[in-house]
């Protein structure tokens, strides 16, 4: 099973290609940002900065945070290209150890990030860090891939059979073309809600999206109690 250091190396490797294929902001992010009027948005696992760009364009300040140096460099380039750099603050760091003070951000975007952290205990540690830095009036949106996709489910079951004692049910190594293997912990909706709730958040809304019968993506909207 990949370590978080290997996850970082994987995203450093695919960063340029990721930037070419990931441009549109997710609807759940636009919905959550629409509930806020001003303030600072923390984009956890910002990737190429597509959601930070949206936040800055809407008048927010954005803290763009990713474990991948190359991803943060690309996010910086994209923000500069759109003349939004002055509204952004870029950080290379691990989501389990966020270098911000308590209760300092108004909103958190954690899109397709939590599922790249190996081990449930470490995922909860990252979510607790997000809770710590969020203001009492703040709102957070989390998303993760669903296990209820046939190819993903088969991949996860093969991973568990190959490494029964070193993997959790839902862990999977999914290729990025021929360039790299990405670690995922594939969630059920109940499992994602449990991770967020047990880390201290107050769940306000959760749902699946994309897919006619089984949803490919899972979303949880939460607030600080």
Task: Describe what you observe in this structure.
The protein is built from 7 helices and 9 strands; from the N terminus they run ααβαβαββαβαββαββ. With 225 residues, it is an alpha/beta fold. It has a single domain, classed as Vaccinia Virus protein VP39 (Rossmann fold). The chain has a 7-stranded mixed β-sheet, with helices on both faces. It has a two-stranded antiparallel sheet with strand order 6-7. Helix 1 runs parallel beside helix 4. The longest helix is centred in the N-terminal third of the chain and has 18 residues. It is globular.
The figure for the number of domains is 1
> What is the name of the CATH superfamily?
Vaccinia Virus protein VP39
Quote the average pLDDT: 93
One letter per element, helices H and strands E, the order comes to: HHEHEHEEHEHEEHEE
β-strand number: 9
Q: Main beta sheet, described?
A: 7 strands, mixed
Shape: globular
Rounded to an integer in angstroms, the radius of gyration calculated over CA atoms is 17 Å
List the helices and strands and how they pair.
Layout: H1 4-21, H2 27-33, E1 40-44, H3 50-57, E2 61-66, H4 69-81, E3 88-92, E4 105-110, H5 120-133, E5 134-145, H6 150-162, E6 171-176, E7 180-185, H7 189-198, E8 202-209, E9 217-223
Helix pairs in contact: 1-4
Throw out a few tags for this protein.
7-stranded mixed sheet; Rossmann fold; alpha/beta; single chain
């Amino acid at each position: 099973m990949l370590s978080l250091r290997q996850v970082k190396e994987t995203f450093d490797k695919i960063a340029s290609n990721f930037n070419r294929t990931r441009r549109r902001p997710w609807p759940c992010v636009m919905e959550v940002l629409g509930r806020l009027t001003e303030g600072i948005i923390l984009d956890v696992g910002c990737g190429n900065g597509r959601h930070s760009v949206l936040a800055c364009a809407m008048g927010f300040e954005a803290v763009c945070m990713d474990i991948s140096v190359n991803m943060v460099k690309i996010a910086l380039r994209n923000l500069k290209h759109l003349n939004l750099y002055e509204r952004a603050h870029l950080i290379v760091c691990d989501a389990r150890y966020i270098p911000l003070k308590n209760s300092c951000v108004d909103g958190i975007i954690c899109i397709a990030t939590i599922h790249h952290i190996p081990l449930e205990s470490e995922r909860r540690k990252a979510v607790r860090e997000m809770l710590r830095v969020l203001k009492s009036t703040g709102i957070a949106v989390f998303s993760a891939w669903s296990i209820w996709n046939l190819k993903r489910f088969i991949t996860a079951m093969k991973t568990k059979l190959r490494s029964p004692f070193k993997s959790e049910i839902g862990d999977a190594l999914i290729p990025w073309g021929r360039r790299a293997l990405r670690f995922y912990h594939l969630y059920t909706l109940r499992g994602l809600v449990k991770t967020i709730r047990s880390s201290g958040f107050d769940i306000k809304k959760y749902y699946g999206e994309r897919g006619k019968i089984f949803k490919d993506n899972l979303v949880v909207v939460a607030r600080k109690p």
